[in-house]
Design a protein that fits this description.
This protein is α+β, with helices and mostly antiparallel strands. It has 5 helices and 4 strands; from the N terminus they run E-E-H-E-E-H-H-H-H. The N terminus is likely disordered.
């Protein structure tokens, strides 16, 4: 069955327009037997405009799938528009940013609920980011001393710190030479 602009089950007016530009791009594909549209609109920004360090570009991504509610997300990057156009950004987003979702970002998102964070002020975002990354670094150190590190998660680390009335956590904070190695 051939799909044309007029027969598309998605809303007729969708951003961006059908013709791609360096700041607008759209894909239309079948995914698990459902028609899926991904549209992205980008624009250059400065860190001062949005109070986010190193931000060079922002984007709105709209995902539309038959039978599901539309999903719109905002994306930020430090990549300049000349180095990352709308088409490439959409491709990277679709592919999971080449491993980012499998590393630090996944741990922050799953264990620290980073994507659902409701902090909106710059100083608070900085402190939250600092402590969540510190926690992640401590987890990685702790995991390296465990018998089967490949099976451990950040939640396991948090549970270990809380065991025995937070003995390990207090030892880490109060010792002159802190260590996450088992005693």
């Amino acid at each position: 069955m051939k799909t044309s602009r007029n027969s598309c089950p998605l809303p007729k007016r969708i951003f961006p327009p059908w013709q791609p530009t360096p700041t607008q791009y759209r894909t239309l594909e079948e995914n698990k037997k459902r028609l899926e549209s991904r549209s992205i609109v980008t624009r250059p920004i400065s860190p001062e405009q949005i109070c986010f360090p190193l931000a060079a570009q922002a984007a709105r991504l709209l995902r539309q799938t038959d039978g599901r509610a539309d999903e719109e997300v905002t994306l930020l990057t430090s990549a300049e528009p000349e180095k990352l156009d709308a088409q490439r950004w959409l491709e990277l987003n679709r592919a999971g940013f080449g491993g980012i979702e499998n590393g630090l970002h996944q741990r922050l998102d799953i264990s620290h609920n980073d994507d659902r964070c409701r902090i909106r002020t710059s100083p608070s975002m900085f402190v939250w980011g600092l402590f969540s990354r510190l926690s992640n670094s401590l987890f990685m150190e702790w995991r390296s001393h465990q018998p089967h590190p490949e099976h451990l998660t950040t939640t396991d680390f948090q549970s270990a710190l809380a065991e025995n009335h937070c003995h390990l956590a207090l030892r880490l904070v109060l010792n002159q030479h802190p260590s996450l190695k088992p005693p």
